[in-house]
Amino acid sequence: MQTHFDFSGRTVLVTGAASGLGLSMARAFAGSGAVLVLFDMDRAGVEATAAALNAARAGCAFALAGSITDKAAVTAACRYAVETTGRLDVVMNNAGISGNAPSLELAEETWRHAIDVNLTGAFLVAQAAGQVMVELGGGSIVNTSSMYGVVAAPERAAYCAAKAGVVALTKVLAIEWAAQNIRVNAIGPGYVRTALTETLAQQGRLDLDALHRRVPAGRLGTPDEIAQAALFLASDASAYVTGQTLVADGGWSSYSYL
Q: Among the options 80, 148, 159, 255, which is catalytic?
């Protein structure tokens, strides 16, 4: 998909960049001229992503392995961006997990892990980025929430709670950091057609036809469409937008029909 945003001369940190939406975001920012610092627990995957991007545009991507739940690691990643490129303009705070289960059977360990990654991890990344951006005079942070951060669904207690927390966190940080020229927004993806959704459909764990009927747009989103929404929130085109969650779900969360 053609991009309409120019990030030439800017540095973007993307977490969860080895696969899924993070990978699509990395490709979109690279295609828009950005220099990328890619962060993911999957060392081989994130290094492969960086290598592919560098093959298309030499020197545009750097790979780091680590967990967003590790404060030292995310702090080091933000500092690395500045030490290596001289800047940190945008942070795509994207990494996350699911952890779905019926609430009566949801293990405490599963609950804690989902909250730790999806909410605490998001906070740690945003905090580390904010500390650097204050020193640099500003920046843009885009957190990945979910449409399930604004509406609910069964068997997603931990996920919905964490992603709703990301929506609230986004508002708090936006209010606190506006005076430091740091914008904080969130994107709330709906169901997106990825390799994972295709696999789940083939396994009979996801009914794509039913999802298509439920979405007013009549289809699932694409990773590129989510990436383009993220580019908008990160770009100067949204310069007066902060504290907001852009839900990109084909109308799902606006439609109460089950």
A: 159
Told to judge if 257 belongs to the known catalytic residues of this protein, a careful annotator would answer no
* Structure confidence by residue, pLDDT tens digits, 56-85: 999 999 999 999 999 999 999 999 999 999
Tokens of 220: 């699932």
CATH superfamily of 11-250: NAD(P)-binding Rossmann-like Domain (3.40.50.720)
Q: How many CB atoms lie within 10 A of CB 213?
A: 11
For the chain, what percent of residues have pLDDT higher than 90?
91
Q: Which two tokens stand for residue 33?
A: 């001229």
